[in-house]
Amino acid sequence: MRYVQSPASRRFGIYLVAVVCIALRPSTPCFAQGATGTIVGTAKDGSGAVLPGVTVTATHLGTNASRSTLTSDSGDYVVPLLPVGPYSVKAELAGFKSSVVSGINLQVDQKARIDLVLQIGEIREQVTVSGEAPVVQTESGSVGKVIDNQAIVRLPLNGRNFMQLTMLAPGFVSPPGDLRSSYQGIAPTANGARSENNNYMLDGTSNTEHWNTDVVTVPPLDSLEQFKLQTANYSAEYGQGGGAIVNIVTKSGTNRFHGSAWEFHRNDNLDARN
C-alpha cells in the first residue's frame, strides 16, 4: 500500500518549519547582549553647542572591527552591543577637524560615556585625545566589580577555580563550613542573600544549573577575559534570581597571532614542614 502525502500535510510541514526558523533566529543576539558593552556620548563644537549628524565610529583595536552611527538632533549617540576590549572612537563632520579618543577599555555590561569635542577646520585634520572611560559610571546604577584578566591569571588560586575570585568584590563571602558546593566549586553569597539565588552567565547565555542553582560550566582560568560581579540595581535582563549576577566573558581572537604555554605542578615535596 502506497502512502501519498496530501497537499494540506505538506503545507502544514512547511509552515511548521518556517515558524521554528523564525522563532530561533533572534535567540543568539538576544542572549549575547549580556556579554557586551555600550559606548554613549554627546558631540559638541568648541563653544559647547551640540552637533547633529556627526559620524561616530567605534573601532576595536584588537580586531579592527568597527561600528558607526550618527548623532541625533540633540548631539547624542549610542553604539551598543560592542565586544569587550580596547577601543578608539572617531568623530567626523564636514567643516570640522576629526576627533579621535583612544585608550578606551570597554568592560562587560559597561555603558561608557565618551563625549566628543570637534574644532572648526578641515576634516582631514585630526585631534587625538588619549584617555580611559571614567571609573565612576554615571550611566548605570548597577553595583558591582569587574575582575579583569590580569587578576584572573596572576593571583594564586588553590584549585584554579575562578569562583574563588568572587571574594575580591565587596559584599561577597564564603558559606560557613565546607567551601565546596555540590558540583563545581565554591558557592559564594552576596549581601546576605542565599547562594541559590545567584545567576551565572557565560558569554551572554545562562550558565546556571536550575536544579540546584549551581554554575554549570567552570571555564579554565586561561580562557577567561574578565567577569563582572553585580550585587544590586542590575537591569531586568538579569531578573532570574535575587542574589548576585556573575557575568563571564571568555577570550576571543584578534588580528595578531598570540598564545601561551604553562605548567601547573604541585606535590608534597613542595609543602612546608610545619
Task: Characterise this structure.
It is a single chain. The chain has 274 residues and is mainly beta. It has 2 domains: 97 residues, Carboxypeptidase-like, regulatory domain (Immunoglobulin-like); 108 residues, TonB-dependent receptor, plug domain (Ferric Hydroxamate Uptake Protein, Chain A, domain 1). Helix content is 11%, strand content 34%. The chain has a 5-stranded mixed sheet, with no helix packed on it. Strands 10-17-18-13-14 form a 5-stranded mixed sheet. Strands 1, 4, 7 and 8 form a 4-stranded mixed sheet that branches. Strand 5 and strand 6 form a beta hairpin.
In short:
The protein is mainly beta and 274 residues long. The protein has helices spanning 7-24, 27-32, 149-154, and strands at 36-45, 55-60, 66-70, 76-83, 85-92, 98-106, 111-113, 116-118, 126-130, 143-148, 172-173, 189-190, 199-202, 205-206, 208-209, 214-215, 224-232, 245-250.
Order of helices and strands: HHEEEEEEEEEEHEEEEEEEE
CATH third-tier fold name of the largest domain: Ferric Hydroxamate Uptake Protein, Chain A, domain 1
Q: How much strand content do the residues show?
A: 25-35%
Contiguous uncertain segments of 5+ residues? 26-31, 178-184
Strand order of the largest sheet: 3-2-5-6-9
The end-to-end distance, rounded to whole angstroms, is 84 Å
Q: Quick check: average pLDDT?
A: 83
The geometry reads as: globular
Helix content: 10-25%
**What is the number of beta strands?**
18
The helix-and-strand class reads mainly beta
Number of domains: 2
Q: Which homologous superfamily in CATH is the superfamily of the largest domain?
A: TonB-dependent receptor, plug domain
Question: Rounded to an integer, what's the Rg over CA atoms?
Answer: 24 Å
Q: Main beta sheet, described? A: 5 strands, mixed
Number of helical stretches of at least 4 residues: 3
CATH class of the largest domain: Mainly Beta
Examine the secondary-structure arrangement and name the CATH architecture of the largest domain: Beta Complex
